[in-house]
Amino acid sequence: MNTILRKSVLGIAGLAFTGGVFAGPVAAHAADTTPAVKPVAVSVQGDKLIPHGVQGAQSRIDLDDEQTANVKAIIAATKKAGMDERAAVVSIATALQESKLENLGHLGDRNDHDSQGLFQQRPSSGWGTVEQITDPEYSTTAFLKGLKQVDGWQDMPLTKAAQTVQVSAYPDHYAQWEQQAADLVAEHWNK
Fold first, then answer.
1. Cα–Cα distance between 90 and 96 in angstroms, integer?
2. Phi and psi dihedrals of 136, rounded to 5?
3. For residues 137 and 60, what is the distance between their CA atoms, to the nearest angstrom?
4. Phi, psi dihedrals of residue 155, rounded to the nearest 5°
5. Is residue 73 within 8 Å of 121, Cβ to Cβ?
6. I need a labelling partner for 21 at 20 to 30 A (CA). Which of 35, 75, 134, 186 fits?
7. Are 179 and 51 in contact (CB under 8 A)?
């Protein structure tokens, strides 16, 4: 009996070794198709806030006075929350994607469910009342509260940090606004 058990164990070990020899080289040469994710940070070069690790093509829009006032409100709320420039960049890029920095009310048939405000937050999802989420300070503070709960948000790509808070149907679209958001923070942070 002892000999049979020993031969069985050795046979299984041999199969495991042989499988490893044959599978090992295949696994070792398998292409890793996941894109390399570079940590994203923000540094200041001269008087310009430069994001590192910007993903993809960048978009830019001209801002009117209302949109600029909303940028300033987001920055003020970020400072009040005790958060840094990177948090403001993530917030502004998110608002650029969600509303083009316009404090949108209910859009009727064009509305995405009950989404409203700069961040297109939904009362039905617990973001607050319509009055609250259409207040730039409140909506920014609500967004930042969600951002603070994302472990490592400071070092992850902007689009991943924003998506973790927003849960958008288009998670990669936030990245296109990172450069403009960084430029806006650099321009308005110390005013």
1. 10
2. -55, -40
3. 23
4. -110, 5
5. no
6. 35
7. yes
pTM for the structure as a whole: 0.71
Residue that is written with structure tokens 């149907």 in the block? 169
Residue of 182 and 30 predicted with greater confidence: 182
End-to-end Cα separation, the chain, in angstroms: 85
- Cα(43)–Cα(84) distance, rounded to whole angstroms? 12
Mean pLDDT score, 29-55: 46
For residue 101, count other CB atoms closer than 10 A to its CB.
26
CB-based burial label for 189 (10 Å; 0-12, 13-18, 19+) = middle
Is residue 51 within a helix (H) or strand (E), and if so which, with residue range?
strand 48-51
Residue at 10: amino acid letter: L
Query: Token pair for residue 35?
Result: 């894109």
What tokens were used for 91?
């917030």
At a CB cut-off of 8 Å and minimum separation 6, what does 171 contact?
159, 160, 163
